[in-house]
C-alpha cells in the first residue's frame, strides 16, 4: 500500500528539513515496510522523545511517513529520554520497536550544519540508525 508524504512533502509540512524530521520519517517508513498495514488506519505509534525542539521534530516525521496522526488519534507522544518509536499494526497485533542508537545521538551533536546532519541520517542503514526490537 502506498501512502504518506514524500520526504520533500514532509519537509514542507514541517517547515524545513532537519535530522530529527528525517529520523521520525525513517522510523515510519521502516514500520510501514515491516508491519505492512493494509490501511492507513491500521498503524499506531507511540513516540518516546523529549518534547522539546529539535527532538520533537521527529513526531512530524512519523506523522508524514506513517500517517499516524494526532487528528486520527493513532499516535501517542510520551515526553521521555528514550528516543524510541513503538509501532503496532492494529489489524495483526504485530509490534515493532525502534530505538535510536546512542552513537547516532552523540554524532548528531558534532555536526556544524543541519545539511551535514541530514546527510548523515539519510545515509545510515536502518540497523545503523535504530536498534530493532
Overall spatial form: globular
Instruction: State the separation between the terminal residues, measured CA to CA.
Output: 23 Å
Which topology does CATH recognise? 60s Ribosomal Protein L30, Chain: A
Biggest sheet statistics:
5 strands, mixed
Structural class: alpha+beta
Short structural summary:
With 133 residues, this protein is of the alpha+beta class.
Name a few traits of the molecule:
133 residues; alpha+beta; 60s Ribosomal Protein L30, Chain: A; five-stranded mixed β-sheet; 5 strands; 20% strand; globular
Commentary on this structure:
The chain has one domain: 60s Ribosomal Protein L30, Chain: A (2-Layer Sandwich). Helix 1 (7-14) crosses helix 3. By secondary structure, the chain is an alpha+beta fold. The mean pLDDT is 96. It has 6 helices and 5 strands. The protein is globular, with a radius of gyration of 14 Å. A 5-stranded mixed beta sheet has the order 2-1-3-4-5. Strand 3 (84-89) and strand 4 form a beta hairpin. The chain has helices at 7-14, 19-35, 57-66, 102-108, 114-123, 126-129, and strands at 43-49, 75-79, 84-89, 95-100, 130-132.
Topology:
Elements: H1 7-14, H2 19-35, E1 43-49, H3 57-66, E2 75-79, E3 84-89, E4 95-100, H4 102-108, H5 114-123, H6 126-129, E5 130-132
Parallel strand pairs: 1-2
Antiparallel strand pairs: 1-3, 3-4, 4-5
